[in-house]
């Protein structure tokens, strides 16, 4: 959520505040007047979302929008048979190149994907199908073969309708699409949910995993299953979308380059970074450093090298080029905003790895805005956003293991405006005090550039 001047409600531990310690409580205040659309709530601390602390969060328009009759929600989860902690322990003991014996099942609307309930279509009616990927690691595809989908929303932002055969969602992504029911009720159909990923070896029946549920027009009718393979279908690709409000391409006054690096440390533990350091928690939440360091808050050094902090100023218009020369797909999520996805392209090393290169594509004049973009292996994306207020934005891959193993960065935007407008609620301060966490000073809780006591940054 944007959390304009209420960054302390963002919920990213040690970035915008302290975590909720066992036995403690904290009240989040969400201004529902700033955004509408599909979101989700999830624990942002060490795999909690993967262990189940995740729920859809939908802000409806004040008035029922014209354009559809009913809404049908699907929220999708990858569901492991181990806890995140056990999985990470297994991960950490493996030799390089080996992934844990982890093939998840799928929950559709909170229940076993094999037991999924049917949905009902009334001939001629228009349905808004809302799909929320609350995934921790895997990608999802959703389709209703025999029906086209008009995508009208991505990550809470309204889009000009884009016709596709199905939706493709990385961890954290959300889409809405209009599906018009056929006029005839001669047949029933199926909706399909597929779980897939490029980071684990395919295994028959386990990956990719296919689930389906009935689309009932008439309970006495036979089910029609159109013979179209997933490879023949057109999947929703964010770079093909145009934003509904026709906001033009933002200008660029400064380009920042992040190159994702991957290296195995110790017992083959893969670490990931944007640029040179694996993210590691600071000793003072980054927001509190920005609020208490005066003019030094503009100097990225005070946030510590392992917070990978980039300070940007009011009035700047930022482009981030994110290179992924590695073998794994990621979803790049930025908190507190949506950004324009302006370009997607190949890095040139795909063929050497026996993979087809990602096609070079630039956005149209009205680029789609998102908060979570897919970044495929051997490719890059360019995203843009204006600095029109103060905010602290955690940037991270939305795959839990990647995020917990370093793939995060921090954007501190206009700290002068944060200092002017933010008044920390006592509750946010108490949450830190309860855990003995300092609420002022640099990343180490010291003055100026003295980072004594901060754990060493892990260089990659
Ligand atoms: Cu990732």
Description:
This is Ferroxidase fet3. GO terms for molecular function: copper ion binding; oxidoreductase activity. InterPro entries: Cu-oxidase-like_N, Cu-oxidase_2nd, Cu-oxidase_C, Cu-oxidase_fam, Cu_oxidase_Cu_BS, Cupredoxin. The protein is mainly beta and about 450 residues long. It has 2 domains: about 170 residues, Immunoglobulin-like (Sandwich); about 210 residues, Immunoglobulin-like. It is built from 5 helices and 28 strands. A 7-stranded mixed β-sheet has the order 5-4-3-7-12-9-10, with no helix packed on it. Strands 15, 16, 19, 21, 22, 23 and 25 form a 7-stranded mixed β-sheet that branches. Strands 6-14-13-8-11 form a 5-stranded mixed β-sheet, with no helix packed on it. Strand 4 and strand 5 form a beta hairpin. The longest helix is centred in the first third of the chain and has 10 residues. The chain starts with about 35 loop residues before the first strand and ends with a strand. The structure holds copper (II) ion. The site of copper (II) ion has 5 residues, from loops. Copper (II) ion binds next to loops.
Summarize the amount of helix as a percent range: under 10%
Reading off the top of the CATH hierarchy, the class of the largest domain is best stated as Mainly Beta
Please mark out the parts with pLDDT under 50 across 5 or more consecutive residues, or reply none: none
End-to-end separation in angstroms reads 31 Å
The appropriate CATH architecture of the largest domain is: Sandwich
The H-level CATH homologous superfamily of the largest domain, spelled out, is Cupredoxins -  blue copper proteins
Averaging pLDDT over every residue, what do you get? 93
Based on Cα principal axes, name the global outline: globular
Question: Which hetero compounds are present in the coordinates?
Answer: copper (II) ion
Trace the largest sheet across and list its strands: 5-4-3-7-12-9-10
């Amino acid at each position: 959520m944007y959390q304009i001047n209420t960054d302390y409600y963002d919920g990213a531990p040690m970035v915008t505040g302290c975590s909720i310690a066992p036995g403690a409580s904290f009240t989040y205040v969400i201004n529902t007047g700033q955004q509408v659309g599909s979101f989700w709530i999830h624990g942002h601390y060490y795999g909690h979302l993967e262990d189940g602390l995740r729920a859809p969060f939908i802000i409806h328009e004040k008035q029922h929008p014209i354009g559809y009759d009913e809404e049908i929600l699907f929220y999708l989860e990858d569901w492991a048979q181990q806890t995140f902690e056990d999985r990470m322990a297994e991960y950490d003991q493996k030799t390089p190149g080996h992934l844990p014996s982890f093939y998840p099942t799928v929950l559709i609307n909170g229940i076993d994907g094999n037991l999924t309930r049917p949905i009902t279509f009334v001939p001629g009616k228009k349905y808004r199908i809302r799909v929320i990927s609350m995934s921790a690691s895997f990608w999802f595809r959703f389709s209703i073969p025999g029906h086209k989908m008009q995508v009208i929303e991505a990550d809470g932002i309204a889009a000009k309708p884009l016709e596709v055969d199905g939706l493709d969602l990385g961890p954290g992504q959300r889409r809405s699409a209009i599906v018009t029911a056929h006029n005839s009720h001669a047949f029933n159909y199926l909706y399909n949910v597929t779980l897939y990923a490029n980071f684990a070896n395919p295994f028959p029946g386990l990956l990719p995993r296919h689930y389906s549920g009935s689309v009932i027009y008439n309970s006495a009718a036979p089910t029609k299953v159109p013979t179209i393979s997933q490879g023949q279908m057109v999947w929703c690709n964010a770079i093909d979308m145009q934003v509904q409000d026709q906001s033009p391409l933002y200008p660029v006054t400064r380009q920042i380059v992040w190159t994702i690096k991957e290296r195995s440390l110790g017992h083959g533990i893969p670490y990931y970074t944007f640029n040179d350091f694996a993210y590691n928690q600071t000793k003072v939440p980054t927001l509190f450093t920005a609020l208490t360091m005066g003019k030094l808050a503009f100097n990225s050094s005070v946030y510590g090298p392992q917070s990978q902090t980039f300070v940007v100023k009011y009035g700047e218009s930022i482009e981030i080029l994110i290179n992924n020369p590695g073998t794994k797909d990621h979803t790049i999520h930025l908190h507190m905003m949506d950004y324009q996805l302006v370009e997607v392209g190949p890095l040139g090393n795909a063929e050497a790895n026996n993979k087809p290169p990602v096609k070079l594509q630039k956005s149209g004049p009205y680029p789609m805005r998102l908060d979570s973009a897919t970044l495929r292996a051997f490719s890059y994306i360019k995203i843009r956003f204006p600095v029109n207020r103060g905010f602290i934005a955690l940037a991270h891959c939305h795959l839990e293991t990647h995020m917990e193993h370093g793939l995060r960065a921090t954007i501190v935007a206009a700290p002068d405006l944060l200092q002017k407008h933010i008044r920390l609620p006592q509750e946010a301060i108490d949450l830190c005090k309860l855990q003995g966490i300092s609420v002022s000073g640099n990343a180490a809780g010291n003055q100026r550039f003295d980072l004594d006591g901060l754990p060493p940054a892990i260089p990659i």
